[in-house]
Amino acid sequence: MTEDIILKLEGITKIFPGVRALDRVHFELRRGEVHALMGENGAGKSTFIKVITGVHAAEEGKMYLDGREVHFRGPGDARDAGIAAVYQHPTSYPELSVTENIFIGHQLSRGGIIQWDEMNKRAEELLAGLHAGFRVTEEMGALSVAQQQMVEIAKALSMNARIIILDEPTAALSRTESEELYHIVDQLRESGISVIFISHRMEDMYRLANRVTVFRDSRYIGTYEVDKIPESDLIKAMVGREITDMYPKPEVKPGKELLRLEKLSRTGYFEDVSLHVRAGEIVGLTGLVGAGRTEVMEAACGITRADSGRVYLEGRELTIRRPADAMKAGLILLPEDRQKQGLILSWGLGRNVTLPIRRELAKGGVFNDEKKEREIAKKHLEEVDTKAVSIFDPVSFLSGGNQQKVVVAKALAQKNMKVIVMDEPTKGVDVGAKAEIYMIMGELAGRGYGILMISSEMPETLGMCDRIYVMCKGRVTGCLSRGEVTQEEILSLAMEKSAGWKEERG
Amino acid sequence: MNKKSFWKKITDSRDASLVLVLIVLLAVIEILSPSFLSFNNVRQIFLNNALTLLMALGMLCVMLTGGIDISITSILAFAGMTVGLLQKYDVLHNTLLLFVIGAAIGLCCGMLNGIVIAKGKVAPIICTMGFMYIWRGMAYVISNNAWASGKDVSGFSDFGKDGAAGPYLILLAAYILFFIVMRWTRFGRRFYAVGSNKEAARISGINVARTIAAAYAVMGLLAGISGALSVSIYASAQPNMQYGKEMDVIAACVIGGISMNGGRGSVAGTFLGAMIIAIIAKALPLVGIDAITQNLVKGIIILAVVSLNVFTQRAINRQNLGRREI
Amino acid sequence: MAGKSGRAISAAPKDGLRSRILSWEGALVLIFLAVQIFGVSISPNYNFTNVLREMPKYLAEIFMLFGMACILILGDIDISVGSIVCLSATMACFAGNAGAPFPVVVLVCLGIGLLCGMVNGFLAIKLQELPTMIITLGTQIIFRGIAEVTLKSGGSVSMEDVAGLMQMGKKLGPFPLSLFFVVLTAVIFSVLLNRTVFGRELYAVGANKTAAYYAGIEVQKDRFICYSLLGGLAGVCGIFLLASLYGANTTTGSGFEMEVIAMCVFGGIATTGGKGNLTGAFIAAFVIVCIRIALGQRNINTQLILVIIGAMLIISVLLPTISNGLRAKKQKR
Questions:
Q1: Chain B window 275-314: which residues touch C at a Cβ cutoff of 8 Å?
Q2: Which position among A323, B74, B308, C116 has the lowest Cβ density within 10 Å, counted as fewest Cβ atoms?
């Protein structure tokens, strides 16, 4: 079979300090095909894309474009070669107009004077081709994420890109918006453009892709024709191990109810969310990105304020105005973004651990008790088995997994902790550390704490949780119990439109 | 999607709303004091605020990149003092050449700012604070505590004296040039791109460090020209000239809608911002308010304008949230 | 915990002496000594007694150093303090001239300062979206504007003799009284920043505001307190300024804000927040004061001090970048 290969990568290896992000991976893209790139979080997909677009230089390996070997020294080279990437969070200029966003860096000009009329017209044409419903004079920052992605695609087209890379484009889109994007990708394929499509959604892949390449743990696993491989085989290729090995879920008999949210609402984010967590229980909260999971728990923990609804802890209603109120009551949040929300990276481990309990430890509530702080930090950091030499090491020196452990130690140091809310606890954490974090979760449940885990990753949700709440568009659409759930059930609830469901007891 | 809210329309065209403010302001003043818009008065307003108007253009570039420059009046003093002394000691009396020298000194000072900020990765306020001291000090040192008096600069001051066309021509040329450059050239648009999103600008192939350095160089150039102009207009050069007036320039830019976070602002807005301050200062005594209150009024206007921005933005955000499809 | 490796993590504090000597504060001490040698070598009158005698006129603004350090550590900035000094000193003069006894004059000065600081703080927490530079630019103009309006067209006011004000210009042995107050304030703020929960919170907010908020710190409350403290200290500065000037005018305190910020930055406090300490800023302040005194005695163009301060400031902030560049070069080789 004579294949028309436009892009080929061979034996690409990329090493970051301490991590082998890509290990001799292969990839092949045909002209005019939509090629899905799949794998779990941390499998190396994003790094791979950055190698193709010239943002990262690979340590080893060769790249061929149209059969000729190429070396990209920077993003400019890749762009000139006709490769463009559209990221999940568009890298745009929010203050500038749509036209300018499309043409920045390659404005149409005559005699040094920018031709705005011509550019506006070209931009209108490009956007009309994508069936966009907004004007080119609008400010980028005023558009929705889906619209901004359209602008990014138009930008790629304006540079005559032959290869367009879409990095999780549907992650932040609603169903109708995703449908629009599918149409656009179909159109691109018809016009002879090759598309690399990264997504976690099986649905995206089946709807769009001709072939799929799977990465796992920084390695190349295989490339398959989409209509020839059964879904179960594909999942096995992606996960590569029996799920039961990974999740040390202890059998705990749920105790009394600890946390209960009743009809919590916040305009524009979530509505009428009710859920409960019992002692010793690990409860999952899942749904698509943007469904409002994080927002619900942030409101419950005082980071933001809900417009209405009640929060009960051990049957008593809490008045939570600020994070400290929730912490005092024993409701601890481990935020999603460790580096921005969870830790002070420039500080040592110890200081990070004792930051929330600084007042309780202080002499007379005023003067820091450094000695006691050191002891407590050491105790809890060792308890979660952090790989570090000294409690004075800056947190920024640690790997993602160990940083997460510091965040857990920070929660453990709070003696009155009753319920611990973990928001994407294994995001950006390597496989080994993941297992350790699951182990810690199991152990905490065994000690009688209530755990609520927000997660986008299906396997860990299925593997670790006693009950799973599913959210869709700001509402809870279902609560499923361990053992009787399937991936499909969760997905259909996560994508469901209406939410006429009441929480079941027991 | 095409239906825009009232708030959005106002904020979308900040320049339009500033024009509106200016018209209302002028109308009120004109009613209270019918002679306000006389040719002579308008001429005076421009002359008295020529330096602020000119330097605000440079501050526009700097603030577009997300920076700030508080060394400008020191650069102005250093350049102006040099120009004054060259005449005092009869080295040079050619008006054009003196302006070129002032501009060149300003450009060099500005480039130093730019290099330290862009290459040395120093916070703009700290770097320009350091140079604020250095250039002001240099102005004192070269002057040796002496002045260049009206007699010394007599020929040069013909260019900028009350009634001469010089300052107006410089202002007109600068505003036309900047209006074109900031809107219709890649050079101008780079400031917007860098201020809006540095990382994206880098990926788009824009040399971010060079763009930032260029902004301070332009600022310095204009401050240098302002130095020479100041000597010409006020017919004297002393080391403490225009001390503290950098805040007026920044205030004009802020009122003109230039965002301190970068990426947002226009030449028209800069002009209108400077004019609003200038007109209020001039009009206060005419409408029966003691001129001594003008700083107080100016401060209140600055805070009122920036708070209004914040509250408008909050209202928009709330509205968008209410309509949002979760 | 299960699966535990039994690995021990050290909790012993690292040896502090070596790192302390090699720190920026160590360098500042050397610079301070170098300035003494410089002073002695250029001026025959540069000695202990003379330096102490000339010191009081430079001391007043150092009070604000401590508040400004807190603000900068938070990652904020306040450029209105010079105007607060002007306003509080002006009001104190009027109070004194109206016959108020000395303690009342002091209270007026402190109270006005504190009030102005609270206004700054209130605006800073209510308009969180704005850079504090803009807010305090507005209040800078307003506070001085109020002083201007109160002073009327004359633009200045003299303090008629108030019993007590004279006392403040007095000496305790060879030391001016104000030096004791400065040192006392320094000790209080040093303890506050380094030893208390509040100080820890300020560093946390400056290093990562979001993480600090998530850890239960009331970020906005802390910001309000710091602005108020700085305002109060500007009031203190106003009192001591009155004790040496016996009056106020529309330019009183102008430029103080930049001088104080310069001392802090020269002392190693980053304007990005979370870094630096009071010791460095305190030494830096006295380095600058001593250079001033030395240059003043030789009657060298005193404005040369501006060039020196500026150059020291730029070099000190460029040092990290330069040393990183050198280190990178070394590694390449």
A1: 290, 292-300, 302-303, 306-307, 310, 313
A2: B308
Domain B6-323: state its class: mainly alpha
Mutate to test the interface with B, among C123, C302, C314, C322 (most CBs of B within 10 A): C314
Q: Which domain holds residue C311?
A: 48-318
| CA atoms of A129 and A184, how far apart (whole Å) | 9
Q: In A135-148, which positions are buried (b, 16+ CB within 10 angstroms) versus exposed (e)? A: ebebbbebbbbbbb
**Whether A349 and A452 share a structural domain:** no
Which residues lie closer than 8 Å to A67 by C-beta, 6 or more apart? A5, A8
Q: Do C138 and B292 touch (CB under 8 A)?
A: no
pLDDT confidence of residue C2 = 43
Q: List Cβ neighbours of C174 (8 Å cut-off, separation of 6 or more).
A: C48, C49, C52
Q: What is the pLDDT of residue B4?
A: 47
Q: How far is CA A191 from CA A32, A184, A343, in A?
A: 8, 11, 48
C317 and B123: CB-CB below 8 Å?
yes
Please report the ipTM that was assigned to this predicted complex. Answer: 0.85
- Strand pairing category for A308-313 and A257-266: antiparallel
CATH number at residue A319: 3.40.50.300
Q: Could you tell me which of B203, B210, B207 has the C-alpha nearest to residue A54?
A: B203
Cβ count near B301 (within 10 Å): 20
Q: Which sign does the torsion angle of CA A370, A373, A375, A377 carry?
A: negative
> What's at B279, amino acid-wise?
I
pLDDT exceeds cutoff 50 at B145 = yes
Residues of A in contact with B322 (CB under 8 A): 267-268
Tell whether C213 is covered by a domain. Answer: yes
Alpha-carbon span C279 to C285, nearest angstrom: 10
Residue C111 lies in a domain: yes
Positions in chain C whose pLDDT score sits under 70: 1-6, 14-22, 161-163, 300-302, 331-333
What pLDDT does residue A247 have? 77
Percent of chain B residues topping a pLDDT of 70: 94
Q: What is the pLDDT of residues A434-468, one digit of tens each?
A: 888 888 899 899 999 999 999 887 778 888 899 99
Burial class (CB in 10 A: 0-12, 13-18, 19+), C333: exposed
The three-class DSSP label of residue A56 is coil
Contact A204, A6 (CB under 8 A): no
Q: For residue A424, count other CB atoms closer than 10 A to its CB.
A: 22
Distance (Å, rounded) from C-alpha B213 to C-alpha A227?
55
Q: Determine which helix (DSSP H) or strand (DSSP E) holds A27, and give its type and residue range.
A: strand A19-30
Per the CB < 8 Å rule, is A95 touching B200? no
Residue C239 and residue C232 in contact, taking contact as beta carbons nearer than 8 Å: no
User: Which amino acid does the sequence have at A343?
Assistant: L
Rounded to whole angstroms, the Cα distance separating C325 from C327 reads: 5
CA distances (Å), origin C207, targets A493, B8, B102, B309, C324: 41, 35, 42, 28, 21
Q: The tokens of B122 are what?
A: 């120093």
Higher pLDDT, B188 or C302: B188
> Which domain-ending residue is among A212, A242, A272?
A242
- Rounded to whole angstroms, the Cα distance separating A121 from A102 reads 12
Judge whether C333 lies within some domain.
no
Q: Which of C122, C235, C148, C149 is nearest to C185 (CA)?
A: C235
Amino acid of residue A198: I
**Residue numbers in B near C137 (CB within 8 A):** 247, 250-251, 254, 302
Q: How far apart are CA A267 and CA A269, in angstroms?
A: 6
Task: Report the candidate in C237, C224, C226, C257 with the shortest Cα–Cα distance to residue C88.
Answer: C237
**C331–chain A Cβ distance below 8 A for any pair:** no
Q: For residues C81 and C244, is the Cβ–Cβ distance under 8 A?
A: no
Mean pLDDT of B212-236: 94
Share the mean pLDDT of chain A. 85
